[in-house]
Design goal:
By secondary structure, this protein is mainly beta. The protein has three helices and seven strands, in the order αββαβββαββ. The radius of gyration is 15 Å and the shape is globular.
Length: 132
């Protein structure tokens, strides 16, 4: 699995802890990592992912459907799953305020073995770490 993930573009380092059942992926300084590709690479390596969490910095924007999203670069954003934390960020939507958040991009559905690649990943906020 470490090799499958390490070959993905934008990945600098992959640490695997079998005791904790966790994998930590560190992006390159200017690396762009596609979480959906990481999820697919995990499954391709023969391992089932239980969940995928990330920490990211960006701006809160409203997408074309009016949903809040975290925009981490001009062409990359993640729609936020509505919860109390995302509601607290509505006031900074479409402003220059940068936020750093920790959230869950994927959680394995009960009973299913493999992620559905056609379903876009949504970010469920677990913590708002910083607003600046």
């Amino acid at each position: 699995m470490k090799q499958h993930l390490g070959r993905q573009s934008g990945v600098q380092n992959v640490e695997v802890s079998l005791l904790d059942g966790k994998v930590e992926v560190t992006p390159k300084e200017d690396g762009q990592i596609d979480p959906a590709r990481l999820l697919k690479a995990t499954y391709d390596s023969g391992v089932t992912a239980a969940e995928m969490n990330m920490t990211a910095r960006g701006k809160i924007v409203k997408d074309s459907a009016g949903s809040l999203a975290l925009q981490i670069e001009p062409n990359r954003s993640f729609v936020l799953t509505p919860n109390e934390l995302s509601k607290g960020l509505e006031a900074v939507a479409d402003t220059q305020t940068m936020v750093t958040v920790r959230g869950q991009l994927y959680k394995k559905p009960a009973g299913k073995k493999k992620a559905d690649p056609s379903v876009p990943l949504k970010l469920l906020l677990l913590e708002v770490q910083k607003k600046e």
